[in-house]
Amino acid sequence: MTAIRVAIIGANGRMGRHLCEVAEASPGLVLAARVVAPDEDGGIQLSALDPDSVDVCVDFSNRAAVAEVAEWIARHRKPWVLGTTGLSAYDEQALRHAVSQAPVFLASNFSIGVALLADLCARAARVLGVEADVEIVETHHNGKRDAPSGTALSLGYAVAAARGQDLSNVRRDGRVGQVGERPQGEIGFHAVRLADIVGEHEVHFGWGSERLTLKHDARDRRVFAQGALRAAQWLVSQPAGRYGMADLLQ
After folding, report:
1. Pairing mode, if any, of strands 199-207 and 133-140?
2. Is the pLDDT of residue 239 over 90?
3. What is the pTM of this model?
4. Of all helices (H) and strands (E), which one includes residue 73?
5. Fewest C-beta atoms under 10 Å: which of 67, 70, 173, 180?
6. Is 1 a residue whose pLDDT tops 70?
């Protein structure tokens, strides 16, 4: 079987370094290129990447680079695994163009355990309905820039969709001051930033005199690298379109 050639975009970043390590150690994969920012060493810039030398791009670079990468992906029609979160409306527009030209796998969290957590949360939400209070608590290292995390939002979307809600209408980020009685159907988000914690997500359901808590704890960033590269191997045989973790688990 021919090895899949992978380009890691954002190779010098925290996740980029793990991706390079895991790719080099994975049978069936070849680390074909390390793509770095213009002011960085240790790799090549995106403009110098030969599209014929790679089969798939895995990207955990800075959000500011997303539109540029999306344009490159659309032009060369290369599969793209994207793990960057906090996208702007402009980024989303560029992403839609890329999706029309190439297979794009987008996820806020590439852990298989988190994908299962989202599935379990949706199942609980369908059974319990809007009568259950839902609070989502995420904890990450003190260097994380966005809040709540993209994973927490994905869990919120899973709960809201299962209950027939639009998350934007029922979302509440934290609570300060005299906020009044909690509205039925509200989904609360809380972000904790603490030391070097890789990632923890808890989804709390409360109704009547009962409480259910579903939790995932990631202790090593390599689990995200492993999941992203698993997605890359799957994506190379897919047609143009937008994909996510639910597709990978089918």
Report:
1. antiparallel
2. yes
3. 0.81
4. helix 66-76
5. 180
6. no
Q: Would residue 144 show up in a list of annotated catalytic residues for this protein?
A: yes
Q: Determine contact, residues 115/156, Cβ cutoff 8 Å.
A: no
Which DSSP state fits 213? Answer: E
Catalytic choice (140, 190, 201, 216): 140
Contact yes or no for 68/44 (Cβ under 8 A): no
To the nearest whole percent, how much of the chain has pLDDT over 70? 100
Residue 158 and residue 116 in contact, taking contact as beta carbons nearer than 8 Å: no
Q: The tokens of 201 are what?
A: 């997500």
User: Please, which residues have CB within 8 angstroms of residue 165's CB and are 6 or more apart in sequence?
Assistant: 130, 185, 187
Each residue's pLDDT tens digit, 184-193:
999 999 999 9
Cα-trace Rg, the chain? 19
Would you list the domain boundaries of the chain? 4-106+222-249, 112-218
Under CATH, which number does the domain 4-106+222-249 receive? 3.40.50.720
78 is catalytic: no
What is the arithmetic mean of pLDDT over 194-204? 97
Q: Encoding tokens for residue 63? A: 């959000």
Cα gap 143→120, rounded to integer Å: 29
The catalytic residue among 76, 97, 141, 144 is 144
- Spatial neighbors of 97 by CB under 8 A, at least 6 apart, are 70, 71, 74
Angle at 40 between CA 35 and CA 45, to 5 degrees: 35
> Are 216 and 113 contacting, i.e. CB atoms less than 8 angstroms apart?
yes
Q: Name the nearest CA neighbour of 229 among 92, 42, 97, 32.
A: 32
